[in-house]
Structure formats: C-alpha cells, structure tokens
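User: I need a structural model of Reverse transcriptase Ty1/copia-type domain-containing protein from Thalassiosira oceanica for a docking pre-check later this week. Nothing fancy, just the predicted structure tokens so I can convert them on my end. Input:
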Amino acid sequence: MRATLIMSYCKRQNTVESATFESELVAMRLARYLVVEIRIKLRMFGIPILGPANFFCDSEGVVKNTSVPESTLNKKHNSINYHIVREPVAQGIMRVAKEPTETNLADALTKIVPYERKKMLLGPLLVDAPVDADGDADGDADGNADGDADGNADGDAT
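Assistant: Understood. Predicted structure tokens for Reverse transcriptase Ty1/copia-type domain-containing protein:
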C-alpha cells in the first residue's frame, strides 16, 4: 500500500533444502500465504485491491518455473510448492520478477558486501549517529571526539 511496509516476517524454514532453487520456492510459498491473507483482510475492510502483488526473487530458475506453466519438477515437495505458488500467478494475484544482484536489498542484509554497496542499497534505512548541541556525534559537551575535556587522550584535564 503505497510502498509502505505492512508486515515483516522472519521464520526458520521447517526443511533443509539442497539447492537455492528449492529454498527460494519454499520462501515464495510462505510469502504467498501472507499476501493472500492480507488481501482477504483488506477486502473485509472494504479496501479495493488493484492489480497483483509483486514478488521479487534473485533466482532466475524460480522466476521462469513459476511464470511458465509447462514446467516440470522432480521432487514431490518442490512440486507441491510450485503448484501453491503457480496458482495465484495464473489467477493474476501474484507477479514474479527477477531482482538483479546489484539492487537486491536482501544481499546487503545477508551477505558480505563492500561498505559502499551496502550504503548505496540501504541508504534510506541507515540512521546516522545523533548529533549533540556542539555539532559532534560523541555526545560530550566539549566538542572533542575523545571524551576528554582538553582534547588529549591521556585522561587528565590539563
């Protein structure tokens, strides 16, 4: 709703997957349940829902498999997850798209990335240290960064 975070969800998955494809499919299934739940609640409140919910995934295989109905999967639990995700895609409730690594916010929170890239990705979310009355961020009243009144790091005030 107007780019506002409605719900944050973090849960350990019940299964251990052997590939990224499988874990992305499980995560998308869980997200699908949450989106359907929110859409039902909004309809109950009388709020009209316009268009599908956008799902962004960094696995090209998951994007293609959920978008193309002719896909076949070998493992039964993957097939179940696939059909659970594929159903709302076919109904127009969900739209799955690829999120490139260069703009993926999740990478900045879960992987080791250079500081500049992390700052670029999380810029709006980063909070700087509060600035006190003298304009410095250390919180003391003298304007020195070491916390000592004379500016020396020796601990005495002379």
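Before docking, keep this in mind: The chain has a mean pLDDT of 75.
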